[in-house]
Design brief:
This protein has 211 residues and is an alpha+beta fold. The chain has five helices and nine strands, in the order αββαβαβαβββββα. The chain is 47% helix and 20% strand.
Length: 211
């Protein structure tokens, strides 16, 4: 009897656990849409677009030296894990007069990893504020036009986040100062949205093959 119970634990439980979690991804693994139709980057310098990409969007502001630690955290905890996924990108917005500071930041990031999916784009203070406001969040830009928060934008230019976060309720963005938040929350949410698109792609391919 005891041996039978041990066998059940060793062989049956892992299968049940797998089916449970697989079911969870398919039925519950969708990241809520918080804001539809976030403004694209048409009016910004640089050939960058949110459309048809899974984007982590950030705002560097005028004090880029103070944001280097944030960028390094994001690179180590998010970009290194997801940067090789097709259509994934990190886009950082900066004021037009900060290009030399951005170049310094890019050089330092390049020492840590390949940065071919990091993009930097520049705009006026008016354009930056308009873009940020289009996110429709409860957050605000700092006086220097920056924020430590980054935002997940899907391929249809919708802001994705959490509606039932245990700490904030509605969670619009992720604080790059906090390694724990990047590890424990943002990483999970990026996984979910990537899985969502993979499942949609598999379904489309299956539908085509059945025609």
């Amino acid at each position: 009897m005891k041996k039978g119970f041990v066998l059940v634990i060793l062989f049956v439980f892992p299968i049940v656990a797998y089916l449970f979690f697989a079911s969870g991804v398919n039925n519950f693994g969708r990241l809520p849409v918080l804001t539809k139709s976030v403004q694209d980057l048409t009016h910004f310098e640089g050939d960058v677009s949110l459309k048809d990409h899974i984007t982590v969007l950030g705002f560097l502001g005028n004090n880029i030296d103070l944001k280097k630690g944030n960028a390094f955290n994001l690179n180590q905890k998010i970009y290194k894990r997801f940067g090789k996924f097709k259509d994934f990108q990190i886009v950082m917005v900066a004021p037009s007069d900060q290009e030399s500071k951005v170049q310094d930041l890019k050089k330092e990031l390049g020492k840590l990893s390949e940065i071919d999916k990091w993009y930097f784009t520049y705009g006026s203070s008016t354009e930056i504020k308009r873009l940020f406001n289009s996110l429709g969040t409860s957050l605000e830009l700092d006086p220097d036009l920056g924020t430590p928060y980054v935002f997940i934008i899907d391929k249809e230019q919708n802001l994705r986040g959490r509606t039932d976060d245990e700490d904030e309720g509605v969670k619009y963005g992720f604080n790059t100062i906090s390694v724990a938040e990047l590890n424990n929350k943002m990483e999970d949410d990026v996984k979910i949205i990537l899985a969502e698109y993979r499942l949609a792609l598999k379904k489309n391919n299956a539908d085509r093959s059945n025609k």
